[in-house]
Amino acid sequence: MGISRRQFLKETSSSLALGVAASQGLIGPISAAAQAAAESTGEAQHREVRDGDMIYRQLGRTGERVSLIGLGGYHLGKPQLSDEEGVKIVRAAIDHGITYLDNCWDYNRGNSELRMGKALRDGYRAKVFLMTKIDGRTRQEAEQQIDESLKRLQTDHVDLMQHHEVIRMEDPDRIFAEGGSQEAMLEAQKAGKIRYIGFTGHKDPLIHLRMLEIALQHGFHFDAVQMPLNVMDAHFRSFQDQVLPLLVKNGIGVEAMKTFGDHFILQSRTVQPIECLHYSMTLPASVVITGIDNMQVLDQALEAARTYKPMTKDEIAALLVRTRNAALQGRFELYKTTSHFDGTAHNPQWLG
Q: What's the whole-model pTM score?
């Protein structure tokens, strides 16, 4: 159910106030993040079911059930992997209950989508909730990228298509402008090429909030939003504190990413992989997307689902105490503080 612009601004202001207070030490260094995670855990649990070793949650107001672990598409297209290995990983993940598949038009120059498309032959496409993303900011560029993605993925539709890398304050304006990429999204949805529409970004929660506000000004409500949610984000320019409560309240599907910050969060030596996954899973996320480029990493993700129990408030607080010093200034969240992860910054022609 949608909200008025006045409600949105009021809720946004409250979220921003909480984040600013936490960052300035006005309510303690970890209490806001710990409290938000603990209080929202129950909200996620009542919408989830366990089937075998996998957990499934509802994707916001869409009513779709998706696996709590999502298979990240980027790693599948890495040059060191063969097509056969990529297909094997995708099919093994699906066979073990993973239904949410992530991808993007630009991942590895299209190779990630090509490999996933091969894996989804032989009836596998019908078993999954398939998501991919586009970079185009103009209607023309977006239309082309949508059609290219469908061709690579060997399908006539995807379940969720997202505006990728909303990482600049002007991105929402370009997307929703006359002749912008949102027009292509809506036309593709009308044509049956996509079912749901979302957006992604990893730079700053303020940009996410602005994207939601600009969409609301145009009478549009996103079905899903993808963003970093991890043990470091809780301390620094926090999507968890500033954006997550707004999404949950308004029934927008939450897609958690950057669980390990690529590999940088693990390099802090403050947390173990299963802890990272369990922390993100405890949040009211619909899905926790993790990159998988070999069978050992797939086994790790499946083990996290098999052994998952919601973390308690005390467990969350202890984990955030342990990670706090490492998390300050975003030293291990390079996607926020550098252009290392900004594909469209390095390839502006993708935007159109």
A: 0.89
Selection from 299, 248, 300 nearest residue 276 by Cα: 300
Statement: residue 5 has pLDDT above 70: no
Token duo for residue 220: 């549009």
To the query of whether residue 107 is one of the catalytic residues in this protein, the response is yes
Distance CA 199, CA 194 (A): 14
The active-site residue out of 56, 74, 107, 279 is 107
Q: Of the candidates 203, 247, 243, 189, which has an alpha carbon nearest to the alpha carbon of residue 222?
A: 247
5-333 adopts what CATH topology? TIM Barrel (3.20.20)
251-285 in b/e form (b: 16+ CB < 10 A) is bbbbbbbbbbbbebbbebebbebebbbbbbbbbbb
Beta strands in the chain (DSSP E): 48-51, 54-58, 65-67, 69-72, 100-101, 129-134, 158-163, 194-200, 224-228, 253-257, 287-291
In Å, how far are 4, 30, 102, 236 from 204, measured between CA atoms? 24, 19, 21, 10
Residue count (the chain): 352
For residue 214, give the nearest of 160, 175, 254 by alpha carbon: 175
DSSP secondary structure letter of residue 155: -
Q: What is the pLDDT of residues 313-339, one digit of tens each?
A: 999 999 999 999 999 888 999 999 999
